[in-house]
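Thread title: Can someone regenerate the structure for this chain?

I was given the following input by a collaborator and told the matching structure tokens would be attached. They weren't. Posting the sequence so someone can regenerate them.
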Amino acid sequence: MNIAILGAGNIGRPLGRHWAAAGHRVTFGSRNPDRLASRMESPGGPARAATYADAVEASDVVLLSVPHPAADGLLGQLAGPLAGKTVIDATSPIGVSQDGLFISVLGPGVTRGSRSAELLPDSPVARAFCHFPDELLWSRGTKQRHFWGMGTASDDPGARQLTETLVHDAGFVPVHLGGLGESAALDPGGALFGHVSTAAGLRAAAGL
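Best answer:
Regenerated them for you:
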């Protein structure tokens, strides 16, 4: 597949390496593609840097992994080019409550997945790679392939299948939680946020 990764940080870069190693064509979208190109890491295969718009244009599927404060604005800018393309939202609307607990800054009753779907009415949207500690994405997906579970959610059957394929290609076992409105477990403060376990362990923690 042609995969655009919007954001080359702690989530986008290890996933890009996994997917390049699996034979996919990876393009990182960035505000500064020239600067990004000078420090690209793609030991498993080819990857290139481009503007956000150019990366989306060349893609079949898009991973959104920019810092959460930038997510809504970027989706608003790219809603037209993203039409018809599956978008996997890996952003984390993380906040901390007064008593020190992780919470979603979107407030109760709103999941990050449903928010992205609202902003992208013409794109199938899925959630994945958002609850797993980002510093473990490379090591657990490389040294212990297909042992650890990765929670996913989507309202669209095609987006679900595509997302589960890319979860597998990154070295994890997909665990489908349901639709985007049911994906609060993946958001900050949710039952799976920061939780690392087998697929069976994730299902148990999510009450499935």
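The longest helix spans residues 68-82.
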